[in-house]
Structure formats: structure tokens, C-alpha cells
């Protein structure tokens, strides 16, 4: 029985064993393929065995920046003591002995020097050095210190406070070691990078890490587009280069996010794609020459996109057009959404200032807009950005006779009257429908609409009395629309678009 049972068992399991054998062979073949394939994938993504060769190759081009600013010292005032106090002579003798004077008759204190240390790098063997603007500030004595100890006086070629860049020039009796810029647009989060600089005065310090993110906006200026890295960056690293693994500069270390003052693994660098055009302008002109469109813009949220029939939230919504700017004669209007500029997509409002600023002054460009749901292209010849041209000058349609108060969308509205103009200190030429009250539980309150503001347009059509507003809202409801787009002006006449739900 036992032998029979064993025989039957062998007979029954033999096919299974053969199948197992075939599966094992297949599995072995698959594992052999994976074993041979994995090293290729790993080698493409693995960390270098050492950064030493790369550091040795580029360190000679990285410099320390010493900037000194001479400031006038103030004489300290002798503490006010009651006449005849026994301490009066003591304090006067102490201050005069230290050369600080008493604020009236004591000897003047000599000017004092304020020093700052930072980093930089050579981009031209003839002696062109790049650093951060905040490293040199208003310094009147700048020195560039090389890795071999050589110290050369530097002059300022040009500087830009908006992107925090400065270009210096030193004179050397021999060509200097220089590095080149790389393509920062090809960076991906996770790519290896290496920073070299002068943290806390410790020159020639090398740190390495990865690209943590791209396109960071830290609200430091109008053109924020930082590379974020976890390579250690500390005070003194400012102005130093961030290298890719080819030894190319793909960023300029500029800022850190730190509650302690030291590196916590969050550092920011100006990408090469942003820096290079500015550096070229500073070298050629000694100043920046940014393109200027002459519009005031705001972002497009989902509700605004629906009201404008955009399909999705995208582009930059024009909230104001400068009467003297290039956009006006080109036919751009308030309410237009710029979705493409000079063949570059405008994904949100932050993109447009960077693209416009980097476009040459005087260039004629195609600007693709969406107006009332229809896409069209306008040609604009760019002007030059002027710091004083920040506010748009808008003209509003003439007002009609005021009407009685009405309510809609959580807003109490009234026609324009002299009494309301005085009560809310409204600008003389401001026309439209005055908001007299906002329901605190309404969507309008959530969007920060306030009493005293003025509705200028509803869905890009002018309104002059509350009846206009309610009629247009009723029309939108009849069309099955979910939101109404209001152009709202504050008492000073500055306007913004606000999309309110009408469901």
C-alpha cells in the first residue's frame, strides 16, 4: 500500500515538477536579464564615487568677495546728569578719553568701516567676476580673493537689485581660470549639484546635494524663479556658483531658508537661464534694459477661468493698461488674458514679467490673448521698463444718472452720488456702481470685496447703475454660467478682477 501510494504520488506530481522546472528556468532567465539591466539603470542615476575631480577642476575660478563700506561715525552724547553730580566729571573724562566726545565739544570720532564677505566666480579669463548684488551693496572698496591667495581690487561693471546680481572687473597680469554657464532648463529634481563658496569666511568650501525643486517663488522680487537645493548653503555662500556634474554653472547661490541662520537643507540659486541675459546686459550697458509691456496683471483662478470661457486656469489677466505703454497702441485691453508671449506659453501670471523682462527692448513680438472666449494674436513693440512706471492710468466710461440701492451676490449697491463719493473718498473720475455693504457670509466677503469699492464692469461690459449689474447677472444665469466676473476698483481707482459664484 505504501509503495502504491508512493507510486501514485510520484505519478501525480511529475507533471507539476516539470512545470515548476520550466517556471524556474524562465524565472532564472528573467532574473539574469534584470541583473544585467539593473546596473545600467543604476549607473545612470547613481551618485559619483567622489566629487574631488570636479571640485579640483573648477575651484580655481571660484573667489571670495570682500566688500568694505565706510560710514560716518556719530559722536555719542554724554548722558544727561544733574549739574554738580559726582558722576558728571567721571563720564566726561571717560568719553573724551575714548575719543567719543560729548556730542558738543568732544573730538569727532573717525569714520568706521563695515565689512561683508561673500562668494563669486570668474566667467571670463580677462577678469569678469559674477556675484550677488547684496554681497557688495554700496561698498566703496571691493576685493576679489583667489584660491591661491591673490587679492585684486575690483570695480563694479553693473548691478541689478531685482534679480540680485552684480558684475565686477579685476585686472590681472595673466589670464584667469574661468567657468562657463550651463543649461539650467534641463535640470530635473533629483539631479546632483555641487556648490563652492566662502561660508562664514571659510573659503574654498565644497558641498554637494541634489536639485530639490525648480521654479520656486520666495517673494524676494518680481522675477523669482529659483532653483531649490539641499546642498549646504550658508552665510558667505551668496554669489557663489552651483555646478552640474559637467562643471557648468547652472545657478548662482543667493538665499537660504533657515530659522537658525545656518543651513537646514533649503537653499536657493538664481538659474543660469535667468542670470545670463542680465549679466550680458550689465557687461554691455552697465545696467539692465528690460522689456516693458505696460500692463498690470493678476492671476487667473478656476472661477475666473470659467467666467472668461478659458477652459482651464491659465495665463495672465490684464487688470490695467498704461495709457503711455506699448500695450495700448497694440490693442490690448483690460480683461484680455495673455496665454502666450513671443511664442512662449504663459502658464500663470508669474511667468509673464520674467518673459517680458528678458525680451529685447524694441523687439516686435506676437502676443496671444483670449478675449471673450476668442483667441487672437496682437503684435506689440516692446518699450523699456522704467522703475517709476508701476501704476496704470485707466479711463472709465462716463456715468449715467444714479439709481436706487439694489442687492445681488451679497452686495448692496448704489449709483454714484456726491454724498457717496465724499463718504468713501472716491477718486473724482471714478465711475461705476458703488458697493455700500458686503454680506459677511457671502462669497464676495471671502474674496475681500469691501464697502466703498466700485463695480466698473460685469463680464467685461461697463455698468453705471445697480440695475445694469442685476440684469447682467440674470443674463449669465439664463446662459447657465456659474460665475460672474466683476472688475472692481478701490477708492483710488486701482482695479482688479473678482469672480463670484452666481449659483
UniProtKB/TrEMBL annotation:
The keyword Membrane applies. The chain crosses the membrane at residues 20-42. Residues 97-117 are annotated as: Disordered. Gene3D superfamilies: 2.30.42.10, 2.40.10.120. Pfam families: PDZ, PDZ_2, Trypsin_2. GO terms for cellular component: periplasmic space. GO terms for biological process: proteolysis. PROSITE patterns: PDZ (PS50106). Its EC number is 3.4.21.107. Keywords: Hydrolase, Membrane, Periplasm, Protease, Repeat, Serine protease, Signal, Stress response, Transmembrane, Transmembrane helix. InterPro entries: PDZ, PDZ_sf, Pept_S1C_Do, Peptidase_S1_PA, Peptidase_S1C. Substrate binds at residues 134, 164, 236-238. One of its GO terms (molecular function) is serine-type endopeptidase activity. It is an enzyme of class 3 (hydrolase). The active site is at 134 (charge relay system), 164 (charge relay system), 238 (charge relay system). Residues 282-373, 379-491 form the PDZ domain. It is found in: Periplasm. It catalyses: Acts on substrates that are at least partially unfolded. The cleavage site P1 residue is normally between a pair of hydrophobic residues, such as Val-|-Val. Belongs to the peptidase S1C family. This is Probable periplasmic serine endoprotease DegP-like.
Amino acid at each position: 500500500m505504501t509503495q502504491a501510494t508512493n507510486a501514485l504520488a510520484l505519478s501525480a506530481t511529475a507533471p507539476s515538477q516539470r512545470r515548476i522546472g520550466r517556471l524556474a528556468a524562465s524565472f532564472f532567465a528573467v532574473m539574469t536579464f534584470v541583473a544585467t539591466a539593473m546596473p545600467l539603470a543604476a549607473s545612470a542615476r547613481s551618485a559619483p564615487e567622489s566629487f574631488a575631480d570636479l571640485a579640483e577642476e573648477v575651484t580655481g575660478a571660484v573667489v571670495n568677495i570682500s566688500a568694505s563700506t565706510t560710514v560716518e561715525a556719530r559722536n555719542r552724547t554724554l548722558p544727561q546728569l544733574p549739574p554738580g553730580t559726582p558722576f558728571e566729571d567721571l563720564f566726561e573724562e571717560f568719553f573724551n578719553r575714548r575719543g567719543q566726545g560729548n556730542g558738543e565739544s568732544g573730538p569727532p570720532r573717525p569714520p568706521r568701516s563695515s565689512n561683508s564677505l561673500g562668494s563669486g566666480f570668474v566667467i571670463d579669463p580677462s577678469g569678469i567676476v559674477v556675484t550677488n548684488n547684496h554681497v557688495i551693496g554700496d561698498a566703496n572698496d571691493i576685493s576679489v580673493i583667489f584660491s591661491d591667495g591673490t587679492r585684486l581690487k575690483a570695480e563694479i561693471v553693473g548691478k541689478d537689485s531685482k534679480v540680485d546680481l552684480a558684475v565686477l572687473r579685476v585686472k590681472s597680469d595673466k589670464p584667469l581660470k574661468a567657468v562657463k554657464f550651463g543649461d539650467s532648463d534641463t535640470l530635473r529634481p533629483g539631479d546632483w549639484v555641487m556648490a563652492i563658496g566662502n561660508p562664514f569666511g571659510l573659503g574654498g568650501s565644497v558641498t554637494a546635494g541634489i536639485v530639490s525643486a525648480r521654479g520656486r517663488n520666495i517673494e524676494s522680487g518680481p522675477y523669482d524663479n529659483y532653483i531649490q537645493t539641499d546642498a549646504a548653503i550658508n552665510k558667505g555662500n551668496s554669489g557663489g556658483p552651483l555646478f552640474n556634474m559637467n562643471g557648468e554653472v547652472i545657478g548662482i547661490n543667493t538665499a537660504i531658508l533657515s530659522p537658525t541662520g545656518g543651513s537646514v537643507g533649503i537653499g536657493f540659486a538664481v538659474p543660469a537661464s535667468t542670470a545670463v541675459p542680465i549679466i550680458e546686459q550689465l557687461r554691455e550697458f552697465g545696467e539692465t534694459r528690460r522689456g516693458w509691456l505696460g500692463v498690470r496683471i493678476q492671476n487667473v483662478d478656476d472661477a475666473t477661468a470659467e467666467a472668461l470661457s478659458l477652459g482651464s486656469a491659465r495665463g495672465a489677466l490684464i487688470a490695467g493698461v498704461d495709457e503711455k505703454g506699448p500695450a495700448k497702441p497694440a490693442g490690448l485691453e483690460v480683461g484680455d488674458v495673455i496665454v502666450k508671449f513671443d511664442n512662449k506659453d504663459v502658464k500663470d501670471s508669474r511667468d509673464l514679467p520674467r518673459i517680458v523682462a528678458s525680451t529685447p527692448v524694441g523687439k516686435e513680438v506676437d502676443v496671444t490673448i483670449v478675449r471673450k472666449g476668442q483667441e487672437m494674436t496682437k503684435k506689440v513693440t516692446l518699450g523699456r521698463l522704467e522703475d517709476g512706471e508701476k501704476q496704470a492710468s485707466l479711463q472709465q466710461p462716463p456715468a449715467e444718472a444714479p439709481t436706487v440701492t439694489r442687492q445681488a451676490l451679497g452686495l448692496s449697491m448704489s449709483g454714484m452720488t456726491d454724498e457717496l463719493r465724499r463718504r468713501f473718498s472716491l477718486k473724482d473720475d471714478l465711475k461705476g456702481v458703488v458697493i455700500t455693504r458686503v454680506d459677511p457670509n457671502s462669497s464676495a466677503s471671502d474674496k475681500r470685496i469691501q464697502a466703498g469699492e466700485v463695480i466698473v464692469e460685469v463680464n467685461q461690459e461697463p455698468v453705471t447703475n445697480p440695475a445694469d449689474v442685476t440684469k447682467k447677472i440674470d443674463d449669465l444665469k439664463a446662459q447657465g454660467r456659474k460665475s460672474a466676473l466683476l472688475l472692481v476698483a478701490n477708492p483710488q481707482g486701482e482695479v482688479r478682477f473678482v469672480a463670484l459664484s452666481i449659483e
